[in-house]
Each structure stands twice: as structure tokens, then as C-alpha cells.
Specification:
Two copies of one chain form a homodimer. With 362 residues, chain A is of the alpha/beta class. Chain A folds into three domains: 65 residues, lambda repressor-like DNA-binding domains (434 Repressor (Amino-terminal Domain)); 130 residues, 3-Layer(aba) Sandwich (Rossmann fold), CATH 3.40.50.2300; 131 residues, Rossmann fold, CATH 3.40.50.2300. Chain A has 13 helices and twelve strands. In chain A, the strands form three sheets. Chain A has a six-stranded parallel sheet, with helices on both faces. In chain A, strands 7-6-8-9 form a four-stranded parallel sheet, sandwiched between helices. A two-stranded antiparallel sheet of chain A has the order 10-12. In chain A, strand 3, helix 8 and strand 4 form a beta-alpha-beta unit. In chain A, helix 3 packs across helix 4 and helix 9 packs parallel to helix 10. Chain A starts with 7 loop residues before the first helix and ends in a 9-residue tail after the last strand. At the A-B interface, helix 5, helix 6, strand 2, helix 7 and helix 12 of A face helix 5, helix 6, strand 2, helix 7 and helix 12 of B. Strand 2 of chain A pairs antiparallel with strand 2 of chain B, so a sheet runs across the interface. The first copy, chain A, binds a DNA duplex (30 and 30 nucleotides) through helix 3 and helix 5.
Chain lengths: 362, 362
DNA sequence: CGGTCCCCGGAAAGGGCTTTCCGAGAACGG
DNA sequence: CCGTTCTCGGAAAGCCCTTTCCGGGGACCG
């Protein structure tokens, strides 16, 4: 693996080929030290600034490093220091705007601290999620942020908790987003109150018959939003008992299918609430395809207020979540909290944003 | 830094506290070896499968690793092996669907090979871009994929090339997307032919007066698309000389501003071509705000065919680029090519997709 | 001018792993 | 039954750094 390597100082002076120094493999600290005529320790100290070094030497090391284009080996540094400067981020899918917004927030926070992020996307595959936690742990990421798991599988959740315990025991800090009771720091949106407020607004608009495009049964976010929505209806005196709830999977296709079914079944609902925007977009497309006009024939509301919403016509009513903030908060929790501290849960506000997709029913 | 650590086998047998082993820091291979009663070398061989190990030992190592929840230190492995299993990906912005689609393609390819990806986003900051190349290099990423730099600054490009040369000299493989002549592998879309075809289609629709919302002057992608567009016009017998070209920055806001200016100036164009979809979306919003109907008052076409386009009304005519493929191809180039091979440039096709935002002028 | 302290350079001991090298025993062939 | 070849364990050398530990000057003080 290691190719034969000659001292660059020695090599250069001999004439054993063209001047083009075609070397393979990075420059080593020892070479810099040799080039500068100082010891390895001195070179290390100059470059990492761990201790003051006298000017004559200092200058020469710096010059040598520059000339040789030395780049420290971060992996070796991590090993030697016993601490890495990378953060792991596990999300569901980069293409989903919900996740990419969160990822953006995380990355901002991470980059501010001069750290780097490992990104992994699970694509809803629970096994991949577990594998990634392993991988991240193996890379000794100093913090791990998880915003993926949309599983309702109890066994999987337990395995995840187990993995996270292992990670924590190994000295890592973890934070999850939009999940709970995982024994880690958590950032959870006020799903319930957000949905409750939304329901109230919708009732105030005059709606009485609703359909909900929910997420997977038993999934925290979906369940909370559904519960909140029901509470809101009840609070406004609408009977939540005959609320039509269809369970989907949080994806666009899911939203499309659900909405199509709604249309096919001749649902009497005057207002449809999709528990996340991605499904709402799918529903919007399905309605359009079926010739159902939004909001004329049916009102439509989503949740999350993802970025692409702004270009949709009609603009979609939603419940705004500060996605980037959520990512940032999670990163802060994982990075700025002392290890061994009891885990914290940060709640973030959700705010109803009424837009063109909802209006008073005909 | 290193906390005092006692041999776990020895420790456990004594009764010096509750059974709960609260240790901080990861389990070491040496501990696994001790626990299994074998040498470090044997444990390493079993776990990495680098050489066959007799059954009695093999089983015990595996059992010990499992019981102790050992996770190898990937950083140390990388140092020892002299090769890391991480890939660097530098993009402009995770939130921009153009980049996240590409990132998705890269990640698919990377994860297929059981590697992990470092993601960095430059946010258009050229200095950050250079820094990130450094960082990636420092982490000894085995491949580096860059899809960022939207700079037109010659000096910066030179520095980038310089950095990339350094990276290559250190044994790394790099691939860039939508850039050229950087001395690395490259994946470039057929910007020119795509735009040319688009222009021809638009002329065939009956348009004669066009405005182009271009990107930064001198940026490859923008320039090529503009050139191609001109060629298409000429080919169809439309004089490209009086083509109105406004230069923007590829962002949504830029598109909005440009379109607003267009409206304010009372442009006679019946068709507007935004050289990327993100600007096209901005323009669409601006037109809508200004009461200009698309496509009734003006036709609008974009380029890239980014994902959120499907939810826009009217659906946007664009030139489809296989973004995920492009990312995947770049990853392949960087990962599957022998080092020291002359760099390849892969061209990917661009295909015009006519949709509702363009129609015959009134 | 002797003693103390401090500054700074180098040797060497790590950090957690892989891999080479060696040697002991088993298996095998003649 | 002996020599050869294999197989497989362990010791130890490496991978590229950081950091501790020392020791040799100088500065500074009395």
C-alpha cells in the first residue's frame, strides 16, 4: 500500500529524472519537518499552534509546509487527539424539501464550528438507518443528528434506542428531530397545537366536513397532528367522530393516491388536511388531475410550510415550522451540551399560515 | 484526555460498585482481544476478515465483540490502511433542488459502495469552496465531487484548479459537475444543444421576440445555454442580434428581479427564457405579482427541469437534465477510474420538455 | 556570580488500528 | 518416519499524528 518514499530534500538535489515531481500520496508532517530542518514535534507544534515555537523555527516550518503543500491528515489527528471533528446527520431523503431544509439548518450550525458533516439518507429503510448509526459511530462522529425514522415498527425503534445508547456510552452526543423518548436530546415541533389552531381556523372559515390525509399509523408526528386537529374541531363545536382519516406514508405519491381515493369515493368533505406538505402537494396534483378545483371545490391545507410551497397555485395553507431552526437547534443540543447531561427536549412553535388553498366553502 | 481504563475482564470480577458499567469512550480492539483471550492481531483479523482464523478463536472474538458492542474506529483504520472510505461532496446549497437532486444521485452511488459522504455547501462563497477542498483533502477523502462554484472570477478558478491539482497529487480523485477545464473528470450537460433545441421549438410555436434571463456573465453553463439559444434562433431564421439578455445570478430572487425589470421596462418579448429553472420560478412569481399572465401574456421557459416544477401552475416548459444521473456519473468517474488516468469528460443529454407555460403568442 | 525559573527543542511514548514477519504445530507426501 | 508445505497465532513494526517528558540554555534575581 505504502509506496516507497524518498526524502524529498534528498531526492530533489539528485538528477534522476525530469524536474516534475510526480509523487503519489500526501505530504507527511515528517517531510515538512525534515524540509524545515526541525524535529517532528516542532513542526507539529507550529502547525497546530499547540505550543509557542521560537521565530526562526516557526517561520521555516510554515514556509516548508507551504512549499510542500502540506495538508494535515485529519484522520490521524483525530486518532491522536482522541476526538474527531465530524458530525453525523441521518435524514430520510435529500430530495424531500422538509429534510433538506432541516439539513440546511444543521449544516449552517456545523460549519460555523468548523466541523464537517457526514450525510446519510435512509430512504425510509429502517435497516439502513441502523446501519448508518453504526457507521457514524464507527467514524466517531462527535455528534449525531437523526431526522429520519418514519417507522412505526416498535422493534426497530427499540433497536434504534439500543444503538443510540451504545453511541452515547461510547461518548457520543445525539439529537433527534421530531421524535421522542429515544433517550437523546430531541427537537419536536408543537404538532398538536399547530394542528389544533389550524382546525379552528378552518372551522371558522365555515368548514364542517373534513378529511385528513394522515401519515403512517402510530407515527408520532402524524398522530399528534391528527390529535391536535381533532381537538381543534371539538373546541369549535364540530363533531370529530365522523372525521374521515386516510393513512398514507408522508410521500407525494401517497398524498396523490389518498386524494384520488377521496375523489373516487365521492367524499363529502369540503376541506382536506394533509398532515404534511409533501402529501398536500401530491393531493393538489391529484385533485387537479381529477378536475377538482382547489379551493373552489375543496379546500386543502398542509403542514410544515416547506419551501416549494411558495410557487404553488393556489398557494397552500399550511402550518409553518421553522425547519432550518429545528435543524440548528438539534445541532446545538448535540454540540453544545455537556456529555452526561440529562437529555433535553426542545419544543418549537408551529404557526398557522392561511393562504389561497383554503376558503369559505360554497 | 484518555481516561484511566481498567481491563474489563479484570474489573468485572471485582465488586466495586453496581453492575452498571458506565464507561465513557468506545470499546477498544485490545479489550475485545483480551475478553476473547486472543492477541490483538487475531482479533483484528477476525473482525476485518483479512486472513482466515481458526474456528475456536474466531467464534470467541466474534462473541466478545458482540458482547462488548465493539465498533471499530474507522479513523484509525483509515490511518492504518492508508485509505479512507469517505467521499467528499461540495455543492452550492442543499436547499436548491438542482443541487439536492445531484446530491441524491451522488449519494446513491456512494452508499452502494458502502462509503460515506462528507457534505459541504458553499453558499456561493468562493473562499468557502476553496476551504472545503482543503478540508476534504485533509480528511483524505478518496474522491471529491464538486458541483458548486458559480464563480466567474478567473483568479478563483485558478486557485481552485491549483487546489485540485494538489488534491490529485496527494492521490485523490476529483470530478466536477457542469464545469470544464479544471483538469479533473467532469460531467457536463449538453447545455448548448439543449438550449438550441428549445429555441427552435419556441420559434416554431410562433415566437419572434425573446428575452433571456441569463446567469452570471462568463459562467460556463449560462454562456453555453445562451449561445445555444442564439444558435437555435438563427437556425430558425430569427435574428438573434436584438435578443434581450439580462444577467442574473441563478437564484430565485435574481429571477424575480430580472422579470420585474422586464415588466417595468415594457419589454416587447413574447417569450422569456430563464437559463435555469430556479430563476424561471422567480420570474413566474414576479410575473404573477405584476399581473402578467403566463402563458397568455408571455411564455416562459426554464432549464434543468428541477423536481418542484411539477407542482407549478402553469407547468413550466424546461430542458430536462438527468440531475441524479449526473451526480451518479460524477461519482462513478471519481470512484471507478484508475488514478493517474487522463481525466474524462462525460456529456449528458438535455431534452426539451414543452409544457403549459409556453404557447403560441397571441 | 550562583541559583531559580522559564522558554523552547527534541526524543519518545502514546492513539487505535493493520500487517508483516516469524515460528510452532499440523498435514501431507514420499 | 522425515522433510516439506500449510495453516494460524502472536509479537512487533508501522500508519501519521499529538503530547508528555526532559534537558539545555537563557533571563532574571539576589
Amino acid at each position: 500500500m505504502t509506496t516507497a518514499r524518498e526524502s524529498s530534500t534528498g531526492r530533489r538535489s539528485e538528477q534522476d529524472g525530469p524536474t516534475v515531481v510526480r509523487r503519489t500520496g500526501p505530504v507527511l508532517l515528517s517531510e515538512v519537518a525534515a524540509h524545515a530542518g526541525v524535529s517532528l514535534a516542532t513542526a507539529s507544534r507550529v502547525l497546530s499552534g499547540s505550543r509557542s515555537v521560537g521565530e526562526p523555527h516557526r517561520g521555516r516550518v510554515l514556509a516548508a509546509a507551504q512549499e510542500l503543500r502540506y495538508t494535515p491528515n485529519a484522520q490521524a489527528q483525530a486518532v491522536a487527539r482522541g476526538a474527531s471533528n465530524v458530525v453525523g446527520l441521518i435524514i430520510h431523503d435529500v430530495l424531500d424539501p422538509y429534510f433538506s431544509s432541516i439539513a440546511g439548518g444543521v449544516m449552517r450550525e456545523v460549519e460555523e464550528r468548523e466541523l464537517v458533516v457526514f450525510l446519510a439518507s435512509t430512504h425510509s429503510d429502517v435497516d439502513r438507518e441502523l446501519e448508518f448509526v453504526q457507521t457514524m459511530r464507527s467514524h466517531r462522529v462527535r455528534a449525531l443528528i437523526i431526522c429520519g425514522s418514519r417507522t412505526t415498527d416498535r422493534a426497530h425503534t427499540e433497536r434504534l434506542v439500543h444503538e443510540l445508547e451504545g453511541y452515547a456510552a461510547a461518548g457520543g452526543q445525539a439529537a433527534v428531530i421530531s421524535q421522542d423518548r429515544l433517550g437523546t436530546h430531541a427537537v419536536v415541533p408543537q404538532n398538536r397545537t399547530g394542528a389544533r389552531e389550524l382546525a379552528r381556523e378552518l372551522v371558522r372559515l365555515g368548514h364542517r366536513r373534513f378529511a385528513v390525509l394522515a401519515g403512517p399509523r402510530g407515527l408520532l408526528a402524524s398522530r399528534d397532528r391528527l390529535t391536535g386537529f381533532r381537538e381543534g374541531l371539538t373546541a369549535e363545536g364540530v363533531d370529530a367522530a365522523d372525521l374521515l382519516v386516510l393513512h398514507g406514508d408522508f410521500t407525494r405519491e401517497g398524498g396523490e393516491q389518498l386524494a384520488t381515493r377521496l375523489v373516487a369515493d365521492g367524499s363529502p368533505a369540503t376541506c382536506v388536511f394533509a398532515v404534511n406538505d409533501v402529501m398536500a402537494l401530491g393531493a393538489l396534483a391529484a385533485f387537479r388531475a381529477a378536475g377538482v378545483r382547489v379551493p373552489d371545490d375543496v379546500s386543502l391545507a398542509g403542514f410544515d410550510d416547506i419551501a416549494p410551497l411558495r410557487d404553488v397555485v393556489p398557494s397552500l395553507t399550511s402550518v409553518r415550522l421553522p425547519l432550518a431552526e429545528m435543524g440548528a437547534r438539534a445541532a446545538q443540543l448535540a454540540l453544545d451540551t455537556e456529555p452526561q447531561t440529562p437529555s433535553q427536549t426542545v419544543k418549537v412553535d408551529a404557526e398557522v399560515v392561511l393562504r389561497g388553498s383554503t376558503r369559505r366553502p360554497a
